[in-house]
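User:
Care to share a sequence and structure tokens?

Assistant:
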Amino acid sequence: QVQLVESGGGLVQPGGSLRLSCAASGFTFSRHAMRWYRQAPGKERELVAGISSVGGSTTYADSMKGRITISRDNAKNTVYLQMNSLKPEDTAVYYCNVFAWNYDYWGQGTQVTVSS
């Protein structure tokens, strides 16, 4: 079955950086686009970044553009999200997502807290 396991979240001060990872299994990773979403308390889940199956195309939320980079390693079945210049409003649970077999699959999420 499809499994997405996020890691790399934590507590960071404003202006700091984090690198999130999502290890995927149960599907042909190199044939699927991957996405990162986030959900802050009391808010809807929102798309943060997406990357095409071979990594040639990326998309970013306007709120984080210029501060984040999504990448993938198809040999390791892993997608990454490098986040720099973090702000308190970036505090959220970050989720990895893949759409496969007409279904949205999600990881369990990793908490990112930006606070001094």
